[in-house]
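FW: tagging you since you asked about this chain on Friday. Here's the raw sequence from the shared folder, copied in full. Didn't touch anything.
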Amino acid sequence: MKKLRIAMSTILVLCLGICLAQEPEEAIVSRASAPSAEDVVLSEIASGFNRPLYVTHAGDGSERLFVLEQTGKVWVIKDGVRARQPFLDISGLVTATANRLYSEQGLLGLAFHPEYASNGRFFVNYTDRSGTTVVARYQVSLSNPEVADAGSGQIIFQLRQPYANHNGGHIDFGPDGYLYISLGDGGSANDPLGAGQNLRLLLGSIIRIDVDGALPYVIPPDNPFVGDDSALDEIWAYGLRNVWRFSFDRATGDMYLADVGQNLWEEVNFQAADSAGGENYGWNVWEGTQLFAGGSAKEHVPPVFEYPHSLGCSITGGYVYRGGAIPQMEAVYLFGDYCTGRMWAMYRDPDLNWQAEELANTGMAISSFGEDEAGEIYVIDYSGTIYRIDPAVAS
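HL: got it, structure written out here
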């Protein structure tokens, strides 16, 4: 097994200053310091993938990993071994990316239904051959749980994209059971459509839908703009340029959104679990905490962290660590940069102020992070390799 050492140090974990009195089920939300150089490695789990963009699990107790390739395939890793045939192959449906040096299209997102173990449903987000964003529902094969029923695809959402970039693409189920979808601002540069601040467009937003009701989907009644004639009912949050991975802290339900910047700043946005939605994260009036186009952004919510393009040029969102293998990483949000391979650790200090420190320079093109059923975190190198963040073994 190939090991890539990324040093981290043992740290003191705090829970709002009352760790000793903490109930077992109470989530740790703060800590005294960041992880630093000591005793953690990136362990190679599998390689040979074609433009991998995501790794996730089905939540069915099987401990399998599912690896998404931008070119249209989903592969299963079981007991450390990659299956001989793909779990799903929709290469014929997605925008061709294999012969391009760089593309923001293709198969971009994968999410398993919270009740997948009983209903066998999962969802994919891809750009089709015409460049349209498609979210489709699929079913696992009734005769073989290691493959999907390729003919079961049913489109539940479509949105025509004006440009080939900023397609968003991430999908995930929130703690509330609703499906959240990331939609970029439409592309080109500088938000020429003004989508970020336009609530009459779904572009530049996170939308939230109910996929368990009538087809194709139902609007949750508590979505923030339901009943507002000046806004679309699907919108959950807006003012976003191109969120490349969002995630929910499995212990608290808080939402972290990594929004790719324009020319100068990359940012991490935060939404507390008790939010009623409707946050305006500022694009394109703001880029991070800096004025960009100017004008007005109603009730602008600034990012909790940003970094300049001297450190990277395309943020890749990750996860809050809640696994059991590395207790000194508890409550740390890990994320990275695609261009430079830098990886950061972000956390709240005992006063609940946000802090972030660079953790490592991995040297890879970090296309995504992933999380398994146990809460362990994975890092994906776009060149084709999947790594898991592990505690270092004493030599």
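FW: The longest strand covers residues 148-159.
HL: agreed, and Helices lie at 116-119.
FW: great, closing this out.
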